[in-house]
From TrEMBL:
Pfam families in the cross-refs: NnrS (PF05940)
InterPro entries: NnrS
Domain of life: Bacteria
Naturally occurring in which organism (per UniProt): Methylophaga nitratireducenticrescens
Protein name: NnrS protein
Amino acid sequence: MPTDVSSTVMYNQSKVWLALWLFPLVSAYAMIIMPLTLYSLYQTQGLPGLSQPEGHAHEMLFGLVTGLIAGYLSGRPERKVALLILLAWFAARVASLNWPDSLWSTVLQALLVALLLWQILPRLNAAKRWRNRILLPLIFALLGLGVLSALSRGLTLPMWFWPTAQVTGILLALLLSYMGGRLLAPAIANAIDRTGGTILKARVQPRIEGGLILTLATAALLSLSSTQIPGWFSALPLWLAALLICIRIVRWQPWRLGGRLDLLCLLAGYGWLAPGLIVMALQQTRGLSTGPGLHLVTIGTLGILATGVIMRLTAQRRKRDLPTGSWWALIALLFSLAAVSRALPDLFLLLPWSARTILYFFAAGGWSLAWGLTLIYQLRTLQRPVVST
């Protein structure tokens, strides 16, 4: 019996929470990526991988997002596997930033995707209901599009890249609506239950969740053939998805959360999906770039939800208190201001270049400060040893 207990302890110690290793690195990367992008766009001696808009989009959609997916879904792998995933992500980022046209950039991105799928597919494949199983093809599509994006840059085929980026933006909105809902529903319900009032009945809201899956998946498919389909028609699923997001938030009754600034801020991040999808629908109807709406989603929704998940997971795994409400509010405010500042120049094309430049730098500053605060919180939790669970 002692031998069995000893073996179990050694087995548990050989496993690590990948999130505790990867999320600080991802946060630091997210903090510096926008200043590096602006420097590379405005200076000839900047990083080759960020000297064109395609490079910035690739690193946001397939560099940062891949790191977040890896940390959130990989769970507790063996120490060697965790180290391998971390090194693969880091190497893929170095290659993409410095040698974006090289074969190595594509190979390393493909290696990272293969490692992640090998790690997370068994867990995702265990789901039974169709709404739960949607995560499997969704993650597979997002990771696969990352490899296609790297390949299109290596072959210098931008006509591949931008359709890939547009589809990825819609699929990312689907992922955020799905996982954000699964995160917020129980947290909001528990917070309201503790107040002693009427129990919240509308929690996950499976019909709305199913509607979001169908509408956004349809929007992604229609965007692949946007040149053959009228813009107003391909925008219809985006309008419906935005409406469903609003209905879902209202049914969560956020006015009953009182002083729970952490949950209110996460709800604000989830709420950014609605204006993001609306702007994407408007732009698609007019036959214009959906970039402004995509920025509202990637900065407003992704920024707030990702940093919130990172801080909650860090607090849980390291047995630490969550940040104060003002900390959450400041991060959410910075991301919100950054989202608006980044979307405005693309919505109002007649803005003078000086005003556009100021807005770009303001957006980059807000984004970097918010991720910096998230990184500071993670580093502060290191003052106390991790408690094994």
